[in-house]
Write a structure and sequence with these properties.
Elements (H helix, E strand, L loop, with lengths): L1 H23 L2 H23 L5 H18 L1 H13 L8 H16 L2 H13 L3 H21 L2 H18 L1 H4 L5 H22 L17 H11 L1
Length: about 230
């Protein structure tokens, strides 16, 4: 768990620095930084999406995952959580902004091959190098995200701990299901959601991205089925 703990700390430290910078940044500069970050997030999303090898798996995962998320009202539940947590961060943005920061940061920090591969390496062999490298990247991203979105980014450290730490703790059980093909498709689907983050940051579309979170895990089911039936 060392790699995940370090990752959570860097997110908290980077997010705290971002909040301090946010107070001293004029709105015009903050908007410029946010739009520039959106372009970087778009690049990350496109790069990850290209790792997928089967477009049908991506389409089915997004469609079914979105349906599951909508039925479970994941976005609405996070919004309500934001309403409660925002009361502890009065004066630092509304609940919607809190939830937006939490969802955007959580997806950005937890989607991608570095998260899964690094967590498996950490759990199976005690090798934390991949997660240490990821921690540095996430800490830098947390600075800019928190400066743009506020304290919701800090809350994403809890999601990193649960998701990434869960893979580490369950690595022995999870490894047989997380083949290279599955990891590639999970990265592809998750990266499509990261593209959605960028589009929201640029005010191009409005998406309930949290409703699509179940889609990230569906390649674990679809990849063996596609392999079985050719």
């Amino acid at each position: 768990m060392l790699g995940t703990i370090v990752n959570c700390i860097t997110v908290l430290v980077g997010g705290s620095i971002g909040l301090l910078l946010r107070r001293g940044l004029p709105e015009r500069l903050s908007d410029t930084i946010m739009k520039g970050l959106a372009l970087c997030v778009l690049y990350i999303g496109v790069s990850g999406a290209l790792e997928g090898q089967n477009v049908l798996i991506a389409i089915l995962s997004i469609a079914l995952g979105g349906l599951i998320g909508a039925l479970l009202k994941i976005e609405d539940r996070i919004e309500r959580l934001g309403n409660r947590l925002e009361q502890r961060f009065s004066g630092q943005g509304g609940a919607g902004q809190f939830a937006h920061g939490f969802v955007s940061a959580s997806l950005l920090f937890c989607v991608g091959s570095m998260t899964i591969v690094g967590a498996l390496q950490s759990g199976l062999s005690g090798n934390h190098e991949t997660l240490f490298a990821k921690s540095l990247i996430d800490g830098i991203a947390a600075v800019v995200l928190a400066a743009s979105f506020g304290p919701g980014v800090l809350a994403s450290a809890a999601f990193v701990l649960i998701y990434q730490g869960g893979i580490t703790l369950l690595s022995g059980l999870a490894a047989p299901f997380l083949s290279e093909a599955v990891i590639a498709e999970m990265t592809c689907v998750g990266s499509l959601l990261i593209i959605g983050i960028a589009l929201k940051m640029l005010d191009i579309v409005q998406l309930k991205l949290a409703d699509y979170i179940p889609a990230i895990f569906l390649p674990i089911l679809f990849c063996p089925l596609f392999s079985l039936f050719g």
